[in-house]
Structures are given as structure tokens and as C-alpha cells.
Amino acid sequence: MLEPFLKWAGGKRWLMNNNKLPIPLNFNKYIEPFLGSGAIFFLLEPQNAYLSDINNDLIELYKVIRDRPKEFSKELQIHHNMHSKEYYYRTRNNTPSDDLKKAARFLYLNRTCWNGLYRVNLKGEFNVPLGTKTSVVLKTDDFVSISNILKRAEIICNDFEQTVDLATKGDFLFVDPPYTVQHNTNNFIKYNEKIFSWDDQMRLKEALVRAKRRDVQIVVTNADHNSVRELYSVVGEYQQLTRHSVLAADPLKRGYTTEAMFVANLKHG
Ligand SMILES: C[S@@+](CC[C@H](N)C(=O)[O-])C[C@H]1O[C@@H](n2cnc3c(N)ncnc32)[C@H](O)[C@@H]1O
After folding, report:
1. 193, pLDDT greater than 90
2. What spacing in Å lies between the alpha carbon of 36 and ligand 1's midpoint?
3. Structural domain containing residue 78
4. Is 269 part of any domain?
5. Which of 3, 59, 70, 154 could serve as a FRET partner for 39 with CA atoms 20 to 30 Å apart?
6. Which of 35, 50, 219, when mutated, tests ligand 1's pocket best, judged by the most ligand atoms within 8 Å of its CB?
7. pLDDT (0 to 100) of residue 190
8. Phi, psi of 2, deg, nearest 5
């Protein structure tokens, strides 16, 4: 099984390993409108997929790995050999125009920046400081196999609504938006609010209700919060996911945190 090659905030790598993800027995196309590191796409390795995200640099990285995996590996190796604090900041402050170099720079910064965070300033320039990880090329890297899986997918930079609206009867839609809640008590979620507002959550809910009426098979994950449970109750059946966390706010739940999942139209057999 292939691992996601990116470290991504809100990545669903943990869900890959705990067998809690409901998966339909059969589906036509796999559709993921909030791709990020694509943990569930790599878990399922579907034959036919439509992958999208609003982050254009992220989408360009996937396309370069799909189309030029060997050249990409060589470019990444150059960053691996050159890595140092000075090199990191020099690379961060210069965006190449060439697609291949741009993609290798994206993964280099992702693997060496603070916590794999993706953040840009108002000019759209990546501004995350250097982190503690120093490995750029990993033992698990296999860009040729990743390319072979990605060749089965259309990969598009899109707002989620266009992608959700493409899904038709029998498709499997896995939906993992940035988490926001209507009344914030948690700073981490508040941070995300800048990029994904409560209005976006309502727009997503409406698009999912339309998809549900078209008999699309749907799994949505989101923050386990009253406002979210209320909003998405019309989309599908609520299930609670539990996972280990070092960041649990409630001392009674220390070591664990919960997330919400909503499931609709899943055909198990
Ligand atoms: C929680 S992450 C998805 C994580 C993914 N499931 C994984 O395993 O890595 C949410 C993603 O939504 C993307 N995003 C934010 N706003 C969006 C929008 N309006 N339309 C499409 N994608 C959006 C972000 O760029 C981010 O990659």
C-alpha cells in the first residue's frame, strides 16, 4: 500500500489505519474535492478518480509527479543534498518558474518546514519557518508507483462546489473540508476560519444535499461540534470517530479527540 507523500494539516493518514472508514462495496468514480495529501485516495487506489483542491501549487505538484516521476525524484535529490538552514530560506524566498522545479521545491519545503504547515502571506508567498525534520528524500518514496496510481485520476484545481456537482449516481464522494465551527472555543479551528468560513460550510452542505438526491455515495468528515452536527444532519447518518491526540482540550478526554462523520447512500453489498 502506498503512503501519502505529503505531511498535511488535517490529513486523514490516521483514518487509513483504524478501519473506521465506511467504504462502499462498489463505486464508479472516486471523487475527492478537498485532496490535501490524499490519504484515502492512496488507501483505496481506485481505478477511476477525480481529485481536486483549491491550492493550485498542490495540484501542480500532483500533476508533475504523475507525468514526470523520475525527473521529479532527481530534482528532489538535489534539495536533499543541498539542505541546510541557509538553503531552506534561500529556496523559500525564490519561486522558480519551471513546473518541475516548482513541484520539487513544494515537496522540499513541505518536508523541512515547521510541522508540514502550508501558509502563505498576502502576496501568496510561502512563509512557514524551518522545522526540525532534515530528511528530504525518504526511504518510503516511490514516485513511479505513485505516478501509476495518479494516471487513473483527473487532477484539477477547483473550488469544492464544482467538483461535488460533478458526482453522479454510484460515484463515491469522500469529503474532508477544513474544519470550522459556528461558535469557536478552539484556536486551531479559528485559524482555519480564515480560509474556510461558516458560509463555506453551509454552501458545502447544500451541494452535498443535491449530491445525496442524485444517489451519490457520500462520506463527510468534520469537527465534532454541535453546530456541525446540526448543519450536516440532513446530509447523512452521524457517526463519531475517536482518535489519539496530544492536543485534546478537555482534560477528561486527554489523549483522545473526536471527529464527526456523516454517511449517505452507501451500498455495502
Ligand atoms: C483537511 S484538508 C484535506 C486533507 C486530506 N483529506 C488528507 O488526507 O490530507 C482540506 C483541504 O481543503 C482545501 N480547500 C480549502 N478550501 C477549499 C475550497 N473552497 N475548495 C476546495 N478545496 C479547498 C485545502 O487546500 C486543504 O488541502
Report:
1. no
2. 5
3. 62-144
4. no
5. 70
6. 35
7. 52
8. -80, 145
